[in-house]
Amino acid sequence: MNDTLKELLIQKADEIWPSVIKNRRYLHTHPELSFMEFDTASYIRNQLQDLQVPWQAMATTGTVAILKGDLPNQQVIALRADIDALPIIEQNQFEYASTHEGVMHACGHDAHTSSLLGVIAILHSIKHLWGGTIKFIFQPGEEKLPGGASLMIAEGVLDKPKPSYIIGQHVMPSLACGKIAIRKGKFMASMDEVLLKIKGKGGHGAQPHLNVDPVLIASHIIIALQQVVSRMAFPGHPTVLSFGKVIANGAINVIPDEVHVEGTFRAMDETWRNEAHIKIKQIARGIAESMGAACEVTIHTGYPHLINHEELSNKIESISKDYLGKQNVLDQDIWMAAEDFAYYSQVANGCFYLLGVGNPEKNINAALHTSRFDLDEDALKISTGLMAYIACKLLEEPPF
């Protein structure tokens, strides 16, 4: 039965591939920012209605669809895709480039969404071959706090019925098309926003002795805070502190009154994460005060770190090797990016794996969150067929 089911799903994935590409390109052409995905939600819901699959709106622009197999089975699992885009000006010139100025699907959520629609189409067409219930979650706002996952969970997306597992996939351009990668246990980092406001005393740049220079003080704070990573973090706890925005609204000869600094803190351990918040505040405030200024520190706590359930990940690895071949299922290192899929994995056993979409021979190798990001659409055969196969195989066995 395994080989027969696998061959059938490979065939089905090939058959629906053109429609998956069509959906992906439409979504790529019409990207929408986090929690503003109204047209995207309508597009998804219309597709579900065409398939005669019941759905429910959640978190305004989120959607959950439910499909039941014909065979007797009480097992419930969930599959998830995110639907929002990023505030990036697309530089690609292909025909399906974004038509929404300053908004782009640079993280592959268009592929995640079109793939999940494809999985629904496949599983709907073979309902007579499997039993159980599958929830398909189309989630808004992955790219923006508080994260659409938290809102969907609060509104009951994992209740009535509660799934035993939740599975998601994420495109990865550094991974070759045709391959996937899985990390068991701790996989992705927590994410917090660090905001600093250094208050000094502005004045003429030629009279620094009469001022309290917040630009200089901000520079000292930024450098000193790297000690949180290099000297305070246990070496076994991966940690990142990066500052990407500094606003000192003065001039070549004007020292401003304030400087604003914004950055991100990433960790893989919740106890250390909380300790680091305290250290960041102490260092920033202490340096500012020692130099005659004041520093307001605001830390917005974001997503927790993502943990892939060990036994579920082992099972999905085995299923994936059966479907793709052992050589195409790789071990993944930790990734210091953050994902609100982490919220789901706190409620149900979860596995989040990477889908290879890169192809240097096709000049497809731009990184995620860049203006030239694209993907090898051959990967959309794997993204649908493999996930459908994983779902069917997991439903065959009792939950862990």
List keywords for this structure.
400 residues; alpha/beta; eight-stranded mixed sheet; 16 strands; 36% helix; 27% strand
Task: Provide structural commentary.
With 400 residues, the chain is an alpha/beta fold. The protein is 36% helix and 27% strand. The chain has helices spanning 2-29, 38-50, 109-125, 148-154, 214-225, 227-232, 270-290, 310-324, 341-347, 379-395; strands at 55-58, 62-68, 71-82, 131-139, 165-176, 180-182, 185-188, 190-199, 203-204, 239-247, 254-255, 258-267, 294-301, 306-308, 329-331, 349-358. α1 packs across α3 and α3 (109-125) crosses α10. The model has no long low-confidence stretch (mean pLDDT 97).
User: Based on helices, strands and strand pairing, what is the structural class?
Assistant: alpha/beta
Element order: H for helix, E for strand:
HHEEEHEHEEEEEHHEEEHEEHEHEH
Summarize the amount of helix as a percent range.
25-40%
Largest sheet: 8 strands, mixed
How do the strands line up in the largest sheet? 1-2-4-3-5-16-6-15
Oligomer: single chain
Please give the structural blueprint:
Blueprint: H1 2-29, H2 38-50, E1 55-58, E2 62-68, E3 71-82, H3 109-125, E4 131-139, H4 148-154, E5 165-176, E6 180-182, E7 185-188, E8 190-199, E9 203-204, H5 214-225, H6 227-232, E10 239-247, E11 254-255, E12 258-267, H7 270-290, E13 294-301, E14 306-308, H8 310-324, E15 329-331, H9 341-347, E16 349-358, H10 379-395
